[in-house]
Fold:
Amino acid sequence: MMRLPAFRYRAPRTLEEASAWLAESPDDTMLVAGGTDVLPNMKRRQQVPGTLIALRSLRELSAIATGEAGASSGRHASLRSAAGGTVIGAGVTLATLVRDEHVRTTIPGLCQAAIQVATPHLRNMGTLGGNLCLDTRCTYYDQTYEWRKAIDFCLKKDGTICWVATSSPRCLAVSSTDTAPMLQALGARVRLVSAQGARELSVADLYQNDGMHYLARRRDEVLADVTVPDQTGWRSTYWKLRRRGSFDFPVAAVAAAARLDAGGLVEEVRLVAGAVASRPLGAPKAEALLLGQSLTDERIAAAAHAVYDIAKPMDNTDFELVWRKRMITTLATCALREIRGDDMRATRQRLARQLV
Ligand SMILES: Cc1cc2nc3c(=O)[nH]c(=O)nc-3n(C[C@H](O)[C@H](O)[C@H](O)COP(=O)(O)OP(=O)(O)OC[C@H]3O[C@@H](n4cnc5c(N)ncnc54)[C@H](O)[C@@H]3O)c2cc1C
Ligand code: SF4
Structure:
């Protein structure tokens, strides 16, 4: 049985208290929300903070607020609401998120991404903030301490070499969060709070393509909430490849959000590839191919190929990497067909069994 290392546990009651405590020693302190990522990592000694600050009882982080007056849900409605948009507290569990009627109907892509995270049990504990800050993953890193010691440690923890690409100066661990690519495609923003104040970043700017330093969040900052802009007129969808139809992390994914005019021409579009680099990757060339066009099979094929071009999977997660890269074309095609209005339910079921 793997045991947790010794650590100090602190349970603040307000966001202000959490930020002040985090500022005391940010390099030796980690935040814990649902704990479904950080606690297994601590058991494997991938992360060994001296102090854990628990966010679970912070009421300020557990609400979903919409731009409509009085329309908010969750245990508390203390979040400021965005004009026409939706503000989701970082402490909202994924289970709460996918049950929320407003999210289900107005941000279907986010619902699809969140409902495909892990299992119902893990979604009951796992939060949106924890999902966005999820550690990057790698076959050579997500192992017990003894396993990693036996082959000698790697750059990301305790070592000096990358076992995936031995000449690489940086870690190539994979961004494996399901909600981040979708929130990036939705043009969402995050609010980061520290003892020094608050700042906002787009979700696109929250991530860096570096397996060790994958977040632009400072270590003394708490991710407080996520604002999804008004989705009126937008369609969104999320397509994910994983070995089992439930439970597993993504090993390739495509998130798409688009606004079409009455004649079906693309007015705005964002396409983001997930799990094929150390951060979610935007696909500006693919987007340019679609702007002002109708979503014909030919346009979709050209755009899907442009998403394929940016994907840089490495041999450090499940499935063979050339096939994973090829599947990006399939996922992008499916996403754009769903945006077009095709009924993709049967294809989704076949994808869950890798039959597409
Ligand atoms: C078997 C298994 C399968 C899984 N499958 C998937 C999957 O398919 N897709 C997927 O995306 N994830 C998956 N996960 C990972 C995890 O369950 C989810 O990502 C979950 O949403 C993490 O949320 P949490 O609240 O438990 O995070 P925690 O474990 O509490 O925290 C995760 C990280 O985020 C930081 N953090 C948490 N909250 C904040 C905050 N408010 N501000 C700043 N930093 C914060 C923590 O310090 C830590 O570094 C899986 C996990 C397991 C064990
Ligand atoms: S990509 Fe390289 S450095 Fe990063 S976790 Fe894997 S083996 Fe370690």
In short: The radius of gyration is 20 Å. Confidence is low (pLDDT under 50) at residues 74-78. Residues 30-38, 40, 55, 90, 94, 117-118, 122, 125-127, 129-131, 133-135, 176-178, 222-223, 247-249 surround flavin-adenine dinucleotide (ligand 1) (CB under 6 Å).
